[in-house]
Write a sequence for this structure.
């Protein structure tokens, strides 16, 4: 039972990592927090859901569509917010964009949970049984993270992106087109959110509702804080910690007498953990400086 | 030393006078004043943090919720009258805010915002797990505070809180603390090097805004009559403060008034025409205002005035 939870935890962890990497990418290159990021994730999940309902595409085959839609959404959002001058106000704007997306989704698609029942059978080793769909999702997830590594470390775009993240002015002096790198980086982050959302649907049997983004935001924040803001690989490791924690908490809390509902208590623990991280290592567990 | 008349401060005092006279006219006016004052206090607390100190507190709803629960806890546990209870519970809110702020105020930029957001998102779950405070189902507060109160006194307390917040803000801006906050907002490292006590300055702002929110959070229960984690900590209150301040103008004394007036009118219209769409519309307004005029209507008026002065 414990081992099974751990395996699920690691699979979900990889997904959390993928979904939060875009968040921290944008924090690095644009020096803003994109509070709408978790809602882009919900949009990705809805994309996968509707593809499943209308054409019968499973989330994996629907990925190209998600990627294209993510690209479009990212470019639209970037063009909307790039005009803003004040970073404080920009933060409030992305926060409001998140609210708009949530309310828009609620309006169009109702607040009900929507999920898919995609099944390819189960692989079982003695006491542990893992659905094949989970495994497929995990492999795709790892592949995408690998591609991201190649993009960030083996291409000109990736090098420029990291340069902008470290010092935009110095990057500009070296001939990097900062605006275009920011635009493409933002689009990349949005694509990651959409892809993450599509894959998320595999792991959520109850499905998602328009407010999933709010729930995920708290997790995202913990993940990027753990990993050090603006550090995508830190986000991956933060994702692993939070994902495993997520699966383990109900088991751990079960023994404590005051806690009636272990699941409902977990988000409060996030807050406590967050404060502890801040108190001990304000730059994040893996953060520099 | 020459005393210059501050137009924004005078305008605010006039606005209070108008609001006061208006509230005396009828029962309906009193109800409306009540909801205006609640919005106004929410906005002022947000303004004090964002407009004057550059602290973005996206956990507004969290402090309002803590205020409500603190008030309920005090009133149901102690046999004291509700007006004293609200002062007591506001101090409890302040104490909680300062102890959390002690952690948060050291961090700048993203981390501070994160902390306040997680506060608003996390505390409701603590309450859901606690049966004494009603758990996830919530509690009907009517039986605890229904019959004992005098609406005029409630209004007076809210009025005084709001007025005091305005006056305190005015005093702070003109004082050493105000300059410290401005320095911190512009460059925290430079401010700290020049001998500004960064932590203390931030905590004072945090404390004042938490106290005001504690009063508003407690007194709003007289009309809501129902307290649950999802309603008390609703994101809508943070959005409310955002809409009011971004339309009114951050860092301006009169800004919250302008914003509150427009917000209440708009809210009323939306309630009649398209209920359920409010948050969506407010979100769109924040985005439009933030992109086109981040200094708000108050800032716009100032700019127009200074343009005219140049011409003359």
């Amino acid at each position: 039972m414990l081992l099974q939870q751990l395996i699920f935890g690691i699979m979900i962890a990889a997904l959390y990592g993928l979904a939060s990497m875009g968040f921290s990418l944008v924090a690095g290159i644009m020096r803003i927090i994109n509070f709408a990021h978790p809602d882009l994730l919900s949009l990705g999940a809805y994309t996968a859901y509707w593809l499943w309902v209308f054409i019968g595409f499973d989330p994996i085959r629907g990925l190209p569509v998600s990627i294209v839609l993510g690209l479009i959404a990212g470019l639209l959002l970037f063009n909307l917010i790039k005009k803003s001058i004040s970073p404080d106000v920009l933060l409030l704007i992305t926060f409001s964009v998140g609210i708009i997306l949530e309310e828009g989704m609620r309006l169009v698609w109702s607040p009900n949970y929507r999920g898919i029942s995609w099944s390819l059978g189960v692989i079982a080793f003695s006491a542990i049984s893992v659905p094949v769909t989970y495994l497929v999702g995990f492999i795709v997830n790892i592949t995408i993270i690998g591609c991201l590594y190649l993009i960030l470390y083996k291409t000109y775009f990736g090098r420029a992106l990291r340069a902008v993240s470290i010092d935009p002015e110095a990057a500009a002096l070296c001939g990097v087109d900062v605006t275009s790198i920011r635009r493409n980086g933002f689009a990349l982050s949005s694509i990651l959110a959409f892809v993450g959302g599509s894959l998320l649907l595999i792991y959520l049997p109850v499905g998602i509702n328009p407010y999933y983004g709010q729930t995920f935001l708290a997790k995202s924040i913990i993940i990027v804080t753990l990993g050090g803001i603006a550090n995508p690989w830190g986000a991956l490791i933060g994702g692993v910690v939070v994902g495993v924690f997520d699966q383990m908490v109900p088991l751990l809390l079960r023994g404590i007498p005051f806690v009636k509902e272990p699941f409902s208590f977990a988000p409060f623990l996030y807050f406590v953990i967050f404060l502890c991280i801040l108190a001990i290592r304000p730059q994040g567990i893996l953060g520099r400086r | 030393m020459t005393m210059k008349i501050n137009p924004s401060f005078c305008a605010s005092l006039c606005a209070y006078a108008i609001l006061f006279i208006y509230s005396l006219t009828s029962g309906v006016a009193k109800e409306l004043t009540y909801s205006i004052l609640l919005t106004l206090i929410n906005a002022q607390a947000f303004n004090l943090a964002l407009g004057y100190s550059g602290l973005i507190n996206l956990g507004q709803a969290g402090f309002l919720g803590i205020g409500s629960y603190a008030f309920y806890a005090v009133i149901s546990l102690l046999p004291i009258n509700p007006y004293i209870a609200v002062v007591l519970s506001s101090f409890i809110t302040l104490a909680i805010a300062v102890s959390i702020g002690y952690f948060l105020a050291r961090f700048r930029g993203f981390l501070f915002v994160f902390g306040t957001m997680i506060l608003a998102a996390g505390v409701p779950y603590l309450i859901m797990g606690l049966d004494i405070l009603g758990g996830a189902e919530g509690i009907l507060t009517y039986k605890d505070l229904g019959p004992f109160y005098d609406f005029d006194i409630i209004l007076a307390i809210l009025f005084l809180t709001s007025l005091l917040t305005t006056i305190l803000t005015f005093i702070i801006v003109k004082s050493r603390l105000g300059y410290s906050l401005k320095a911190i907002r512009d460059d925290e490292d430079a401010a700290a090097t020049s001998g500004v006590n960064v932590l203390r300055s931030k905590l004072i702002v945090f404390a004042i805004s938490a106290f005001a929110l504690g009063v508003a959070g407690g007194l709003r229960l007289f009309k809501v009559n129902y307290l649950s984690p999802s309603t008390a900590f609703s994101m809508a209150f943070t959005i409310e403060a955002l809409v009011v301040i971004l339309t009114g103008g951050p860092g301006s004394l009169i800004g919250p008034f302008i914003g509150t007036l427009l917000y209440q009118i708009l809210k009323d219209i939306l309630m009649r025409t398209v209920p359920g769409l409010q948050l969506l519309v407010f979100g769109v307004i924040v985005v439009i205002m933030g992109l086109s005029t981040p200094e708000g209507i108050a800032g716009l008026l100032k700019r127009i005035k200074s343009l005219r002065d140049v011409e003359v």
Observations:
- Chain B touches chain A through 43 residues (CB under 8 Å).
- Chain B is about 80% helix and 0% strand.
